[in-house]
Design a protein that fits this description.
Layout lengths: L1 E5 L4 H9 L5 E5 L1 E4 L5 E4 L7 E5 L5 H17 L4 E5 L19 H12 L2 E5 L17 E4 L2 H6 L8 E5 L5 H11 L3 E3 L1 E6 L2 E5 L8 E9 L3 H12 L4 E9 L3 H9 L4 E5 L7 E3 L2 H8 L8
Parallel strand pairs: 1-2, 1-5, 5-6, 6-7, 7-8, 9-10, 9-13, 13-14, 14-15, 15-16
Antiparallel strand pairs: 3-4, 11-12
The structure holds ribose-5-phosphate.
């Protein structure tokens, strides 16, 4: 039996994960107290099982990271031998090299930090570009699961003539994976980012398209999706949907997407958001307990 310890904001996904692991996992909520000086006290309700997994996504990562380290320590003090982390969204993956002199290599820093606290790390669609496998940044076993089949499933066999649109060359392998699994054509845009909220995109020539689905691993400020949607509308696209894995979206970003003419936004439940319509729970369950029947 896996003790599944979820932080408050991850409880909905944790319930789905427990349901996808019938008889294999018992869910508990991590109790967090925030002192007036903003320190945190973390308490776990553990029976000292052989195996425990802590569930928390690392959007707004800085306070959440430290509480994760406290939870891992608390579980070991209760006698748990194997403490795993499931972080459906894993932060600090974008800085995978020193882009400018004087910067830290944050992907390596978070990899070292989490590897010291946990025995394994599991995530979904980590933002990996210059490294192939998550284990290159971690010293403990670490795995990033692909959400491409989940995204593709939504459009496979659809009667409308959908075309999948990817935002930039970096995303090409993932976008191709989604398009191939869905049996749809795809086009990759070219993106130039000149600031946190400033991007320019160019679309290569493509056959006449009426239905476009923009796919991306992350939507944050929403400017990438908004710029793409604007270009697609100019090209005569009638219906424009967006599917993202990690909806890191602020309210300001949601307004931006609506104004850009995105008809529907869909995301997975790695980060709680109103657009969550695809659950990663079965994916995570299969990775945690490959032999469990309910994991499918
Ligand atoms: C970038 O490499 C990612 O794949 C996303 O395209 C990016 O994080 C989206 O950010 P924003 O919504 O702020 O444009």
């Amino acid at each position: 039996m896996i003790e599944l310890h979820a932080f408050g904001e991850s409880c909905e996904l944790a319930k789905r994960l427990e349901a996808a692991l019938p008889g294999e996992a018992s869910l508990r909520t991590v109790d967090v107290h925030r002192f007036p000086d903003r320190e945190s006290r973390v308490r776990v309700a553990s029976d000292g099982a052989a195996r425990a997994v802590v569930l928390r996504s690392l959007d707004d990562p800085n306070p959440k990271l430290f509480e994760l380290l406290l939870a891992a320590d608390a579980l070991r003090r209760r006698g748990v031998r194997e403490v795993g982390l499931v972080a459906p969204y894993l932060a600090y993956m974008r800085q995978d090299r020193v882009f400018h002199e004087g910067e830290a290599l944050s992907q390596q820093v978070i990899g070292r930090l989490l590897s010291a606290a946990f025995d394994q790390v599991l995530t979904v669609e980590a933002h990996l570009h210059r490294i192939q496998r998550l284990e290159e940044a971690f010293t403990c076993p670490a795995r990033s699961l692909s959400a491409a089949p989940l995204v593709a499933e939504r459009y496979r066999g659809a009667p409308e003539p959908w075309r999948v649109i990817g935002p930039d060359e970096e995303s090409e392998p993932w976008v191709r994976g989604v398009a191939e699994a869905a049996g749809l054509p795809y086009t990759i845009a070219h993106k130039r980012r000149s600031g946190d909220r400033r991007v320019e995109v160019e679309l290569p020539p493509m056959p006449e398209t009426t239905h476009a689905v923009l796919v991306d691993d992350i939507a944050s400020s929403g400017v990438t999706l908004a710029a793409l949607a604007g270009m697609l509308r100019e090209r005569g696209v009638q219906r424009c949907e967006a599917v993202v894995v990690h909806a890191l979206l602020s309210p300001e970003a949601e307004a931006r997407l609506a104004a850009a003419g995105i008809d529907a936004l869909v995301s997975t439940d790695t980060i709680p958001h109103a657009s969550n319509a695809l659950s990663v729970a079965p994916l995570l369950a299969r990775a945690l307990a490959p032999d469990t029947e309910g994991a499918d």
